[in-house]
């Protein structure tokens, strides 16, 4: 079953450490990513470092013309994806002088590295029938490639659209938060490479504190648009293990504004099924009792 | 695996990250990460005060995750060769 | 107790994971998962092979093969981070794209053939020996030259210092002077500009020091894309409250992180910087005490000097030769030789058999100073008059920068300079690659001197160089005009001995005053026991120059059929050099070509599938050039050093063997030299003495006889007669008792320790990281740091303290190694007749300069004027509003039907090329693409060649986003995908709208991602001091649609030429 809003399990689970709740005794602190897009320089070191570490194949020499984004989105062969958004609005007090001969309030170029969110309430984990997708002792969500049978149930389950199946082997692949590296205390490849420390790795609790401080600083510096995304344990997925600082609405970056774990309503649906089945059964019994020939 | 409290307890007893890790059955780098919140080979730049309060090592910590490092800075055979060159090229008088 | 059953279901039931979502379903594989880094046999310390930031790399080796490459977190300068290219190093070096076998193309051959390595080497030896013999020149117009003009070499900034050293040593011994590399086409202007202003032509500071800047001005630089890991220090500064300004024609990823972006017209930075200089002078905002004590502001210039009036010409101009006689620019009653740049200027003009000032008996004199700065001919007044016309109105008119924005920039400079605050410039090739490139750097230097930012923390001029070891390939130069350590290559003069050479070319005061010691030590390193006091230390063995032999001069000689053999060492001129067509034309006239690289770059395959084959102009079967392709070893397969952009020399260790025929350049050059010497052994021909007498006995190791790079570095670093390794260049002697292959690297192997391999972690030292590797000179990290203290030796402020005088202990001390004699007190004043370092006073921070001062005005060293002056680029649609001379009167041009120039802006036909192209780099690719277009992880990030245009230009020309466009100049036509973006903005120039087009230059026809090369459009028009090409701004036409194929391509070029009325003389007036 799932960790939902209405189930009794959820009362327990809300605020609980996912690793502990998923059966790990003596679990280490939950680890995650805080991606501060306000310092991202759009270099895509994260994309390359991830591919090199995980030996992911190159997945398409196609010019998309989407500003400098030729990766397109997350997928089985792109576990980090840098988005580029050019907008005719200023950011903070930055002065760009680009509005010389056009009607615009200003200009800004938003750059952001996207990744699997390692949700607290992970729908992919909920629906995986084989036990391939599992919660690690670090609180991360990982696809065990030796088990995944490529059924694809997880693909539509993810509210962020992170998952799809690889054309090469039919299985699902995604960010593991470098589970193998964490095991020996090494930093995930993308976070290690990031030249400006936009991708920060550490205990989730600490990252959330740091992020709150950073938003405050930006607000004081005249960047009121700065906000956190995926940081809130009360949101529809129970907060993300990989959360972000954005400079605009999530939709601008291609992120869902209010993601909800897609298995949230399952218990309620099953209860209705149970009620309906019960009613049907009762009705059938009633018919059988009433409709007996005399 | 281990909790932060478990590793800290061993550090308090005077263990190093290497021996604490061995005792708990986890790699020393993981023990380091659990306590400090920092990866042993991280590219972040915490302030020196922050490092100390986290129980990070004063200098480098990447040896906790790496195999032995190869970085020799001396080579006796080259110095011998230099001696030969100097004797031939310079000692004969200028 | 944790459940341990193999059955997940049992674990689920028995353990704490009842839902079967975590511990219970962890597979055996997951439980045993370990990263390959932890399971490797060893980790080898190395350095990234891409750009000049020189990020430290950890290379993990398992079973003798490299399995992972990532950043080294202990490095002070990179902190474990890597950009996308550095992150792709594993794929670059261990992926499938690298060739493993020698390939050979016979004359007129249509295909490559395999050939074994030994045979190929022997064939190359044959050709070198034969071609040299046939093309050897003993004299030119009665003067001894002793050189071979028939062979040339290009490359390489991607090579180790030890490799460049052997290339220069062997080829010089063979009499070859046409030796060049990427440093020529990249930052040669920096060497001239910084060298003449301050005394050394390298970056004065390090990226890590930018964290202390209060204002950072990035100009002529796309630092966030070209040097992402160094950019972290700009972000640090920002986090501490610094202001970041980006000035550029093109809004890039760097601009996105700047507080202020200033779009300007490409090619107008001198007008912009001149405007700021004018502002500082007019408002008295200079750091007066610094200016008076540390610059030549008070120095009086001789009466003959004629300032640049309305025509824009200084005194001494010869319109026939399009060059200057700089004699009249000199100081009054004193002759100053420059520390860098053109140092044989007087001789080069053929001023008799001996240049002026050669006679040491003639007093070089002492400069006359006016500390009141009122003398009409003092530098201060000359500077004021020169920049008086660079008003805010003029800046707006010429550069397209609104006056309010310009005022803001000026305000920022002034408020962030002085005792308490410092400003840094960061620049790249956006400044250097112009026909006035050296003067761009000079202009920035002047401003930094006026504001007192040189030698101070958070100040300086941070020259961001491009390749892993391009600083090294400038220092240990595979360049024609310098010997190791920036000793000028001697020119051909009558009866010039070593003493005469030193007298003519060396400043006699300052540390260049010891040039004899540096030169003799070099000659001893190269010719050992054959170099004696009796034979002038074999000075006669050095081939002499007659004129410029820059790479572009060489290309012209190739086109004329005078160069028969050519070596390319990791350089790709068919894509990376200006006028790609001329590059290929030159190669098509060669007898033989040797290409060493990872993959089959365009410079190796032009005979098979280059544009001239595609168009049908040439037929492969009719091309005679014999081509040898030797696959090169990667940096993980070699021991050696790279010198990064902050002068830091880092050793990288060999981690694995190369495959097949792949060899290092060290191996190639050493064995080439060995075989040539064996072939010539016993020769009695005097021509062969220099190569036979070379010291060429390096120890070799292993099954392939790899030379020991440690030995080469030791030779570079230097030793004394007792075989003790020297510690610093002050130990070098003129009497032949010391040997040193490059005096500025003296000390790299001090105490028998490979200082370049030191790896003290960042956390154990201060921000300068002085115990990580080794920097030249003498491990000083911030140059001219004496200037961080006042004349009495106290820091100008506590906040900006760097080094200071410790009176109690009688020495200089501080955070950095003092760039000054450690025990020379501030109060020291030199005696009248002092020479060399003794002539440097205790308050002269610029110790390489002849007068110990920073040069606001350059009396020597810069060929086109003592002060930067705005001229329009060679191809420009805009009239020069500052002077009558449209273009640099002293620029260097080449006449050839394939190198035509565009009309003057007011001539008929000028409107044929109404737009401006500015070239730039993308972070995903690397220079001419040899290390990125074949690398899948990089190729997929930027898979197509595109151009960037504003929505306004797109509307005007009917260009569609995602569609195609054709760009045309008088040299060529290319096509590119179109990106319409707000980031390209139209500018108002001189009352009308001017459009700029951004064009990245990484593409060529070969590799995984292919496209036309931008350099099909560019021309060979050079800066006269640095010989660098102008590729940062050219005029162009752009039309929607793809370009013609086949013969139609050149037909279109000719059509454009006709429409614009272009002839051989177009654009060539002085």
UniProtKB/TrEMBL annotation, chain A:
Keyword 4Fe-4S: yes
SUPFAM superfamilies: 4Fe-4S ferredoxins (SSF54862)
Signal peptide: none
Residue ranges of domain 4Fe-4S ferredoxin-type in the record: 31-61, 107-138, 139-168
Domain of life according to the entry: Bacteria
Subcellular location: Cell envelope
Pfam families: Fer4_11, Fer4_4
Protein name per the record: 4Fe-4S dicluster domain-containing protein
Gene3D superfamilies: 3.30.70.20
UniProt cross-references to PANTHER family, sorted A to Z: FORMATE DEHYDROGENASE, NITRATE-INDUCIBLE, IRON-SULFUR SUBUNIT
InterPro entries documented for this protein: 4Fe4S_Fe-S-bd (IPR017896), 4Fe4S_Fe_S_CS (IPR017900), FDH_Electron_Transfer_Unit (IPR051555), Formate_DH_Fe-S_su (IPR014603)
PROSITE patterns, per the entry: 4FE4S_FER_1 (PS00198), 4FE4S_FER_2 (PS51379)
Keywords associated with the record: 4Fe-4S, Iron, Iron-sulfur, Metal-binding, Repeat
TrEMBL record, chain B:
Region Disordered: start-end pairs: 40-72
Protein name as annotated: Uncharacterized protein
Lineage: Bacteria, Bacillati, Actinomycetota, Thermoleophilia, Solirubrobacterales
UniProtKB/TrEMBL annotation, chain C:
Lineage: Bacteria, Bacillati, Actinomycetota, Thermoleophilia, Solirubrobacterales
Gene3D superfamilies: 2.40.40.20, 3.30.200.210, 3.40.50.740, Dimethylsulfoxide Reductase, domain 2
Organism: Paraconexibacter antarcticus
PROSITE patterns: 4FE4S_MOW_BIS_MGD
Places the protein is found: Cell envelope
Similarity-based family: Belongs to the prokaryotic molybdopterin-containing oxidoreductase family.
4Fe-4S Mo/W bis-MGD-type domain ranges (all copies): 41-97
Regions of compositional bias (Basic and acidic residues) in chain numbering: 357-370, 815-832
Keyword Cytoplasm: no
InterPro entries: Asp_de-COase-like_dom_sf, Formate_DH_Act, MoPterin_dinucl-bd_dom, Mopterin_OxRdtase, Mopterin_OxRdtase_4Fe-4S_dom
Signal peptide location: none
PANTHER family given in the database record: FORMATE DEHYDROGENASE-O MAJOR SUBUNIT, TUNGSTEN-CONTAINING FORMYLMETHANOFURAN DEHYDROGENASE 2 SUBUNIT B
Coiled-coil regions listed: none
Chain spans, region Disordered: 346-370, 815-840
Alphabetical keyword list: 4Fe-4S, Iron, Iron-sulfur, Metal-binding, Oxidoreductase
UniProt protein name: Molybdopterin-dependent oxidoreductase
Main location: other
Cofactor(s) the protein requires to work: [4Fe-4S] cluster
């Amino acid at each position: 079953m799932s960790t939902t809003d209405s189930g009794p399990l959820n009362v327990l689970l809300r605020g609980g450490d996912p690793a502990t709740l998923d059966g790990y005794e003596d679990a280490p602190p939950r680890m995650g990513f805080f991606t501060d897009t306000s310092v991202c320089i759009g270099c895509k070191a994260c994309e390359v470092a991830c591919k090199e570490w995980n030996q992911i194949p190159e997945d398409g020499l196609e010019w998309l013309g989407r500003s400098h984004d030729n990766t397109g989105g997350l997928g089985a062969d792109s576990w980090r994806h840098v988005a580029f958004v050019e907008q005719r609005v200023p950011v903070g007090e930055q002065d760009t002088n680009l509005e010389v001969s056009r009607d615009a309030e200003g200009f800004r170029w938003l750059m952001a590295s996207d990744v699997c969110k390692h949700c607290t309430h992970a729908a992919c984990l909920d629906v995986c029938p084989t036990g391939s997708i599992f919660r690690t002792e670090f609180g991360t969500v990982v696809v065990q490639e030796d088990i995944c049978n490529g059924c694809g149930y997880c693909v539509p389950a993810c509210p962020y659209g992170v998952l799809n199946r690889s054309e090469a082997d039919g299985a699902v692949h995604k960010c593991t938060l470098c589970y193998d590296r964490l095991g020996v205390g090494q930093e995930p490849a993308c976070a290690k490479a990031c030249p400006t420390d936009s991708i920060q790795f550490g205990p989730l609790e600490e990252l959330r504190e740091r992020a709150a401080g950073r938003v405050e600083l930006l607000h004081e510096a005249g960047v009121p648009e700065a906000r956190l995304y995926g940081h809130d344990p009360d949101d529809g997925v129970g907060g993300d293990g990989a959360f972000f600082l954005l400079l605009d609405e999530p939709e601008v970056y291609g992120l869902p504004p209010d993601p909800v774990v897609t298995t949230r309503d399952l218990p309620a649906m099953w209860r209705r099924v149970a009620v309906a089945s019960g009613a049907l059964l009762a009705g059938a019994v009633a018919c059988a009792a009433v409709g007996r020939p005399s | 695996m281990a909790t932060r409290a478990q590793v800290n307890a061993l550090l308090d007893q005077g263990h190093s990250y290497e021996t604490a890790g061995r005792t708990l059955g986890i790699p020393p780098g993981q023990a380091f990460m659990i306590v400090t919140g920092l990866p042993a080979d991280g590219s972040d730049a915490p302030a020196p005060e922050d490092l100390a309060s986290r129980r990070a090592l004063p200098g480098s910590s990447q040896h906790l995750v790496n195999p032995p490092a190869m970085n020799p800075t001396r080579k006796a055979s080259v110095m011998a060769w230099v001696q030969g060159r100097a004797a031939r090229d310079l000692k004969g008088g200028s | 107790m944790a459940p341990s059953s193999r059955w997940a279901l049992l674990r689920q039931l028995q353990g704490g994971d009842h839902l079967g979502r975590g511990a219970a379903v962890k597979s055996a594989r997951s439980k045993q998962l370990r990263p390959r880094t932890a399971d490797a046999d060893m980790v080898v310390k190395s350095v990234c092979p891409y750009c000049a930031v020189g990020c430290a790399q950890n290379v993990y080796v398992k079973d003798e093969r490299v399995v992972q490459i990532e950043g080294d977190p202990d490095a002070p300068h990179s902190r474990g981070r890597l950009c996308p290219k550095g992150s792709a190093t594993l794929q670059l070096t261990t992926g499938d794209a690298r060739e493993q076998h020698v390939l050979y193309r016979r004359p007129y051959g249509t295909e490559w053939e395999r050939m074994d390595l030994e045979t190929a080497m022997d064939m190359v030896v044959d050709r070198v020996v034969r071609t040299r013999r046939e093309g050897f020149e003993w004299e030119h117009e009665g003067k001894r030259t002793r050189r071979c003009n028939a062979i040339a070499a290009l490359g390489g900034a991607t090579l180790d210092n030890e490799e460049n050293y052997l290339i220069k040593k062997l080829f010089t011994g063979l009499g070859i002077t046409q030796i060049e590399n990427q440093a020529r086409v990249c930052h040669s202007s920096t060497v001239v500009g910084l060298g003449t202003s301050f005394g050394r032509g390298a970056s004065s500071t390090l990226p890590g020091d930018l964290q202390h800047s209060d204002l950072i001005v990035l100009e002529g630089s796309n630092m966030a894309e070209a040097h992402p890991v160094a950019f972290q220090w700009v972000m640090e500064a920002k986090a501490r409250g610094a202001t970041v300004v980006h000035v550029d024609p093109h809004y890039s990823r760097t601009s996105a992180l700047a507080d202020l972006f200033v779009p300007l017209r490409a090619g107008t930075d001198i007008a912009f910087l001149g405007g700021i200089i004018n502002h500082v002078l007019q408002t008295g905002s200079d750091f007066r005490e610094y200016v008076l004590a540390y610059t030549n502001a008070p120095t009086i210039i001789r009466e003959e000097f004629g300032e640049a009036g309305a025509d824009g010409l200084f005194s001494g101009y010869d319109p026939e030769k399009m060059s200057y006689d700089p004699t009249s620019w000199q100081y009054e009653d004193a002759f100053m030789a420059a520390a860098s740049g053109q140092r044989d200027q007087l001789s080069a003009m053929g001023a008799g058999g001996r240049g002026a000032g050669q006679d040491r008996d003639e007093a070089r004199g002492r400069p006359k100073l006016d500390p009141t700065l009122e003398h009409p001919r003092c530098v201060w007044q000359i500077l004021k008059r020169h920049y008086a016309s660079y008003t805010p109105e003029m800046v707006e008119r010429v550069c397209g920068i609104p006056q309010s924005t310009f005022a803001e920039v000026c305000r920022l400079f002034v408020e962030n300079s002085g005792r308490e605050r410092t400003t840094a410039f960061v620049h790249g090739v956006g400044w250097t690659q112009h026909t006035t490139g050296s003067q761009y750097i000079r202009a920035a230097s002047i401003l930094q001197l006026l504001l007192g930012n040189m030698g101070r923390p958070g100040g300086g001029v941070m020259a961001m160089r491009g390749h892993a070891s391009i600083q090294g390939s400038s220092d240990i130069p595979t360049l024609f005009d310098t010997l190791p350590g920036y000793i000028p290559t001697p020119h051909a003069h009558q009866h010039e001995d070593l003493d005469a050479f030193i007298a003519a070319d060396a400043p006699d005061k300052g540390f260049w005053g010891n040039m004899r010691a540096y030169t003799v030590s070099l000659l001893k390193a190269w010719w050992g026991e054959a170099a004696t006091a009796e034979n002038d230390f074999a000075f006669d063995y050095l081939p002499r120059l007659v004129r410029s032999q820059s790479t572009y001069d060489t290309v012209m000689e190739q086109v004329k059929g005078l160069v028969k053999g050519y070596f390319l060492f990791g350089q790709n001129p068919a894509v990376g050099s200006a006028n790609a067509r001329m590059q290929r034309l030159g190669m098509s006239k060669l007898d033989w070509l040797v290409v060493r690289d990872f993959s089959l770059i365009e410079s190796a395959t032009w005979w098979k599938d280059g544009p001239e084959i595609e168009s049908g102009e040439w037929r492969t079967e009719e091309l005679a050039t014999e081509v040898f392709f030797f696959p090169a070893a990667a940096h993980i397969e070699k021991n050696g050093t790279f010198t990064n952009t902050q002068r830091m020399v880092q050793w990288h260790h060999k981690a694995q063997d190369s495959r097949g025929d792949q060899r290092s350049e060290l191996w190639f050059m050493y064995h080439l030299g060995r075989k040539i010497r064996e072939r010539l052994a016993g020769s009695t021909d005097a021509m062969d003495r220099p190569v036979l007498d070379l010291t060429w006995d390096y120890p070799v190791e292993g099954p392939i006889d790899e030379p020991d790079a440690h030995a080469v570095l030791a030779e570079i670093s230097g030793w004394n007669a007792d075989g003790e390794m020297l510690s610093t260049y002050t130990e070098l002697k003129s009497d032949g008792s010391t040997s040193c292959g490059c005096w500025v690297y003296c000390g790299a192997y001090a105490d028998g320790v490979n200082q370049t391999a030191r790896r003290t972690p960042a956390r154990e030292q201060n921000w300068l990281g002085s115990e990580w590797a080794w920097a030249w000179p003498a491990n000083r990290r911030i140059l001219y740091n004496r200037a961080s203290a006042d004349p009495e030796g106290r820091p100008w402020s506590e906040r900006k303290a760097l080094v200071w005088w410790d009176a109690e202990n009688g020495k200089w001390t501080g955070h950095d190694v003092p760039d000054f004699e450690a025990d020379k007190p501030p109060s020291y004043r030199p005696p009248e007749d002092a020479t060399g370092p003794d002539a440097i006073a205790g308050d002269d921070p610029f110790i390489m300069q002849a007068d110990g001062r920073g040069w606001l005005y350059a009396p020597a060293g810069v060929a086109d004027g003592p002060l930067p002056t705005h001229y329009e680029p060679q191809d420009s649609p805009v009239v020069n509003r500052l002077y009558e001379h449209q273009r640099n009167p002293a620029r260097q041009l080449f006449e050839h039907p394939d190198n035509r120039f565009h009309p003057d802006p007011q001539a008929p036909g000028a409107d044929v090329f109404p737009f401006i192209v500015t070239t730039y780099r993308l972070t995903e690719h690397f220079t001419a693409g040899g290390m990125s277009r074949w690398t899948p992880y990089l190729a997929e990030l930027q898979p197509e060649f595109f151009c960037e245009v504003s929505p306004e230009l797109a509307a005007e020309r009917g260009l569609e986003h995602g569609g195609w466009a054709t760009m045309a100049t008088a040299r060529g036509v290319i096509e590119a995908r179109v990106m319409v973006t707000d980031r390209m903005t139209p500018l108002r120039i001189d009352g009308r709208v001017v459009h700029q087009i951004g064009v990245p230059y990484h593409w060529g026809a070969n590799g995984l991602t292919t496209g036309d090369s931008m350099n099909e459009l560019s021309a060979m028009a050079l800066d006269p001091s640095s010989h660098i090409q102008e590729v940062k701004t050219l005029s162009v036409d752009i039309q929607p649609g793809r370009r013609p194929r086949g013969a139609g391509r050149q037909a279109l070029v000719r059509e454009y030429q006709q429409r614009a009325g272009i002839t051989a003389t177009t654009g060539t007036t002085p």
